[in-house]
């Protein structure tokens, strides 16, 4: 079953190219040294725009986005209105109302919203989303299939009912998340193609915390995030005593991932039978790293396993 799962994952990573446009909105109350409102725009998990209630201006983080907004000033003006006027007012009002519903007064309170869309540039499939969190817990999420809001908290039910009954709001969300957002995302992908559609191979290292710890095969600095990594034994994929980690973002827009191999039952003579394979979608040649004690980076020495 594990082998079938990894095979399906490999096919999905290799054939499907998905792009995402995500907006993160954070409103806060009672937080020292944090703006009451923060907004961030991310394209394919890369920060492209930022604003907050203290600076009162939009900071464009990518050169291609700056050029796009210069060519489309009306697009930039729309973001200005959302970021500096509408969203800060709405966040502040919603926090005020939620504090009343939860019977709260002072203290720290944080409202978060994430909305946007994902577009598969091969199948054309589009998935929109809009969800809210309050004080670290899920509060409301939009079901685009039924065009109704899901309320996991009792305090959210009355808001759900009001928003469900607001047909203008329902229609706006549907059009924005399924039509406008994908159109903008496609425009951003084209404008930032040299950056968003680039390919960067990672550096791959073998790591081990202690002599009895699993050996970690760690890849960092790759782009895009459509990658898989696995251990092989005698040239075949190996799944026993293997733990796959998630793909995580780096601060520079690239990604990292790792896969652990437990060698507690493997003799020293058999280490040479294992290697780690990294595959990046769109790249023909894999990066293969042989399991070698001399190449392992450890916490008790720069390389190699001391005392063995």
From TrEMBL:
Position of the signal peptide: 1-16
Keywords, comma-separated and alphabetical: Glycoprotein, Signal
GO biological process, one term: immune response
SMART domains (alphabetical): IGc1 (SM00407)
SUPFAM superfamilies: Immunoglobulin (SSF48726), MHC antigen-recognition domain (SSF54452)
GO cellular component, one term: external side of plasma membrane
Ig-like domain span: 202-276
Residue spans crossing the bilayer: none
UniProt similarity note: Belongs to the MHC class I family.
Designated name of the protein: Major histocompatibility complex class I-related gene protein
The organism of origin for this protein: Collichthys lucidus (Big head croaker)
Lineage: Eukaryota, Metazoa, Chordata, Craniata, Vertebrata
